[in-house]
Structure formats: structure tokens, C-alpha cells
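Reviewer 2 asked us to include a model.

Predict the structure of this chain.
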Amino acid sequence: MARAEGDGSEPAAAILAIRLLLLTGCRKSEILGLPWEEVDLERSCLRLPDSKPGAKTVLLGAAALQLLAEAAQQRPWVCPGGRAGEPLKNLYKPWGRICKAAGVGGVRPHDLRHGYVSIGAVGGESLVVIGAIVGHSAAGMTERYAHLSDDPVRAAADRISSTIAAAMSGAGWC
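Predicted model (C-alpha cells):
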């Protein structure tokens, strides 16, 4: 990303869109069609009236908030397209070039949403909280996105079994 951004080969709107996808867990359509009027910098959120699950509020982490605060506010769209007054329509060409430069294949922009959920889960956030951030109405969907690797699962199993072993040995639950 930094290389593509630094050499000016990719449109600033495309770089902004990809960074927002990385930092928010939003769907591609939510970012590409995001008007500035739905961005609430004071309350650190996006107010999306017409998302896939219906109206939703996306709470923004500090990095996403800073990115939006620093973005050139070209009205009406956060990620303006090549034609005046239109939003950025797709990311296929810039996404393909960025993936090629990074030596990564077979990755879609939607995979950034999966990555957001996975990083949250691996970091110890509950699936309920992560689901609330990304707008999943059912925890099962968030669980399908989480893609937990064996390492955090193994670590959790170790903590649980160690606690039980300590209790069985008379050391108590602490």
C-alpha cells in the first residue's frame, strides 16, 4: 500500500477506500458509496442509512477517524470517482495492481472484511462485539468470518486446562 501510495500510481480515492476497508471492516459498497454527510467525525462514526442489514452505525477506531479527518473532503463523496459528482465505482484495477506489487494473489477486497474480523478475534475481542462493529445480526456469521488459527485456540485451551489442573491439584482457581 505505502509503495503504491508513495509513487502516485494509484488514485488517492482508491488508496483511501482500501485503507478504510482495512480499518473499519465495512463492506466495499459501504465505503465506495459513502457520502461525507454520513461521516460524523465528532461522534467518531459512520451513519449508514442503507446498508445490507439496514440502517447501521459504524463506530470508528482512532486510525480510521484520523484517516477520514485528514482526507481531502471533496463533496459529496468520501472516495470520489473519475467523473465529477460521482463516487468511485470499483477497485478492480487499483486492487489488482496493488496485489501484484505485493506479490499476493487470489485476494479480494471483501477479504479485508474477513481479515478485520479475524484480527479482532485473534486479539481477544468477543465475536459479539466484533459482530456489532461490522453489522452482523447473527453471531454465527461473525464466527464464519473469524478464521481462527490454531495458535489462539491452542493458547485458550492451554489457559483453560491449566486453570482446571491447578484446581484439581488443590491450588484453587487463581
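The first strand starts at residue 39 and ends at 40. The mean pLDDT is 79. We have added this to the supplementary material.
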